[in-house]
Amino acid sequence: MTSHVSGRAHLLRFFMRHAIKTRMHATPDIDRIRASMERVARFAPDRPKGVTVRKTVISGVAAEWSAPVATSTDRRILYLHGGGFVSGSPRTHRGIAGRLARGAAARVVVPDYRLAPEHPFPAALDDAAAVYRALLDHGVPPARIAVVGDSAGGNLTFALLLKLKAEGAPMPAAAVGMSPFVDMTGSGESLLTNAALDPLLHAAGFPSVVSAYAPGLDPANPLLSPLFGDLAGLPPCLIQCGSDEILLDDAVRLQRALEAAGVSAELEVWTQMPHVWQVFARLIPEAKTAIDRISQFLRARLGEGEHMGKAA
């Protein structure tokens, strides 16, 4: 992607490095991380214009729908939010869900999946699968469904695809991962080479995330580390990541593994963008552009179907 970095993006990186990375992520504390994410969502709400928001419960999972105003569409996006498996909610990701709903002309559902450590693996994955199946059960064709996720939600996105494949369930039409965390073994070189460059994440905090989500389990399990799964037969994928993220190698290796498995996979490495910069579309132009790229990708693969399933 372009090598130009906006002044606003530089300011955001500065804030992240000095207000978040050094104060919060250096010594991860789950309660503190949760409170911080919800505080930002509460005091800096991001609800894009032209989008309606509705809370619901789907197959026992609390969720939130975002839909473009005055647009009738059978396109559906299952959005799996990030937060290290221990934090985040539909509210913290309302801005990006709304922008995708508007940009892709789709209804976006964000499950409030169960969080670790209270609910370790496979609780979050089971919740994601339950919502996906509910979309199918309510008459939405798989050709009109995309699965999108950021960070830990990117992990859940590809783990869900592997789970669906193993169960013989219909695949969605497309998948998108934003800075996906797909290798819990920590074997990516960028964990070391980008340790000082990444303005947000500390590699030292990863073991606590893994132990909270997958206590005592083999991190190489493909449903924990989708990078090591059999990726053949997955739908077309788009992956976005920042050039100096410690998760850069997760994105690069995932794209290579997908292509080696015969899956169409696009990788966009954005110069000096912080982890999941797409959520900052109110603040930096690069986030708006990245969401536009994702929206274009999804529109091209979800088509203009005429069948209208009843709302889940």
Automatic annotation (TrEMBL):
It holds the Pfam family Abhydrolase_3. PROSITE patterns: LIPASE_GDXG_HIS. One of its GO terms (molecular function) is triacylglycerol lipase activity. SUPFAM superfamilies: alpha/beta-Hydrolases. It comes from the Bacteria. Keywords: Hydrolase. Residues 77-278 form the Alpha/beta hydrolase fold-3 domain. Belongs to the 'GDXG' lipolytic enzyme family. This is Alpha/beta hydrolase. It comes from Hansschlegelia plantiphila.
